């Protein structure tokens, strides 16, 4: 039960991150690029060290390799099916977040049950911090797409619910899904790496704010290094 509550809080952080769009008329390009860089730094760390590296460390090299490649190809396939270039990058970012929320929920649930409360709580805190800036960017994207701040916050919150739902599944079926956790983690990691390299970094480096976006990236990465050290 504790693992589900922890994952519910982390998922809720995604919706909390979108709340500032109620008070911000429009994010400036500079702010958006810095936040996008910050989120990219967090996502690269999460993809490489929180999702992919544990698979390799535990000896699941084949699952990790296949998962990374299939995750990247899956995002590439989705990208090819979206005809409108203007929507494509935003859609890919949102889809990548939905995909990587699912194994994160599995990991919180499984880790909480298997490794004890402290590990589960600290991991949930790290993911919650990661979800806040991602929620702000997703909320801003959806606000511009839906032309409604409240709908944007609602849908962003629903995206965050992927974590507690998958955590609940992970807890209830822990003994059955453990074998799939390494593959699902690597799949999510591969999808994240594709979207960061193909969409996020090019987008925040094309409007004259590349240096600021780069320091945003480094800051996001460092935040996750600190959180990883705590865990």
From TrEMBL:
Source organism, top-level taxon: Bacteria
Entry's transmembrane regions: 6-23, 35-54, 60-78, 90-109, 121-142, 154-174, 180-201, 213-230
Membrane topology qualifier: Multi-pass membrane protein
Keyword Translocase (UniProt): no
Record's keyword terms, sorted: Cell membrane, Membrane, Transmembrane, Transmembrane helix, Zinc
UniProt-annotated location(s): Cell membrane
Protein name as it appears in the record: ZIP family metal transporter
